[in-house]
């Protein structure tokens, strides 16, 4: 297993990883991906921005095995304080602040998930779907089931904060400082 993330420049599209972000060993970050301070990308993830930008906001976490991809005309935007559960797929969509995307869920091109929402595990949010803030979304296709309570919304924030703490611990355990991206020390770099 590699001890660093694979960071790939794709033509003129270059990843920008803040010094206070963390990318796990073995994850792959390709093209114009921006990781804000405190963002974390976990083991086995692929973030591929070879056609449009991907941005991951401050304190957000992309958990193990996720795929984030941008399509022509559809950048992928992940706001601040977002948790993207294990093996979820975000494809050319916008996730606003303080959202939890459940494990194994899929959010497709042009969809927008409003702030403070929860997308249940295994849900499929179809192309162009707009979810209002503070919603519980579930099903295939995903539909708004109800409004989240204030306690549920606070749990989403606590979950992201907990992942930020774990990212710092994993960075120390893997002997990786938070990854900066100014030279090959940022990860194993491969040309496009």
Question: What's the helix and strand layout?
Answer:
Elements: E1 6-8, E2 16-17, E3 22-23, E4 28-35, E5 40-41, E6 46-56, E7 61-62, E8 67-69, E9 76-78, E10 83-84, E11 89-91, E12 94-95, E13 100-101, E14 106-107, E15 112-113, E16 118-119, E17 124-125, E18 130-131, E19 135-138, E20 143-147, H1 150-173, E21 188-190
Parallel strand pairs: 1-4, 1-21, 2-4, 3-5, 4-6, 5-7, 6-8, 6-9, 7-10, 8-11, 9-12, 10-13, 11-14, 12-15, 13-16, 14-17, 15-18, 16-19
Antiparallel strand pairs: 19-20
Question: Which features characterize this protein?
Answer:
single chain, Gamma carbonic anhydrase family protein, 13-stranded parallel sheet, about 190 residues, UDP N-Acetylglucosamine Acyltransferase, domain 1, Transf_Hexapept/Carb_Anhydrase, about 10% helix, LbH_gamma_CA-like, mainly beta, eight-stranded mixed sheet, 21 strands, Hexapep
